[in-house]
Predict the structure.
Amino acid sequence: MFTLEFGDILVYVDEGTGFTSSISRWAIGRYNHVSMYIGEAFGDIPFIYESNGRGASIVSLQHQTGRLVTVMRPQMLMENVVNKAITIASDPQSYYDYLSYVTNCLPRVLMEKLPWLPLPLKYQRDIFLICSEAVAEAFWRVGIDILPKDIIPLPGDFVKALMLDPVYEGRLLEDILP
């Protein structure tokens, strides 16, 4: 039986049926969110590190119960990475980067889908983070190049990362939590 482990990367499948989900799947693939499992606190409450509309934060995993996920397990010790994630989430300046969708994600998608278009692609890291940047940033800040630093990471990139092994795909249910 599968159980989440400290430092596992959770990549969420977009199961939406609406127009925006269809466009999103065409543009960035089947994955639309990523987070990192950081363990339990306050007894047996499981927590994740993610970036959402509130910015980089530590939240209960329970609000994601029932979602379809691919769990990727890092091939390295995760204590330093998780500690760095907690530091990032504790920074009141770690806002969500809404502008990044226009300045980084859209140009990347257009270059991948329409390679004949001469679009400049210049990704610059900053303190504002979308979900995939937040998870990658925790690795980058401890010197682990989990994904390339010269292009904005998207959730699906974690499924292709050579330093991560796929260990589970299915519903995030109570029975897989430690």
In short: Strands lie at 9-13, 31-41, 45-52, 55-60, 68-74, 164-171.
